[in-house]
Recover the amino acids of this structure.
């Protein structure tokens, strides 16, 4: 049976569009904007870890890197939101 190859990078654009819509829709409720930002960061980390796990390149350094990048993005963008 042939394995289905799913590229996780194809999901980043739709997630970005949904995130931008969420930022616009919740523009008067900053806490919901922050929650959707955190949700997007978690989805980013999960997608990255799944990608590296599938390619067998997942190491502790890669995990820490993606977590730190997500935390940096949250800290920068939360300054714009709240």
């Amino acid at each position: 049976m042939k394995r289905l190859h799913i590229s996780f990078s194809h999901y980043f654009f739709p997630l970005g569009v949904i995130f931008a819509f969420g930022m616009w829709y919740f523009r008067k409720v900053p806490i919901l904007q922050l929650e959707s930002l955190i949700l997007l960061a978690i989805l980013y980390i999960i997608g990255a870890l799944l990608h590296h796990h599938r390619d067998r390149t997942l190491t502790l350094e890669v995990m820490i890197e993606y977590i730190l990048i997500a935390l940096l993005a949250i800290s920068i963008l939360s300054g714009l939101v709240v």
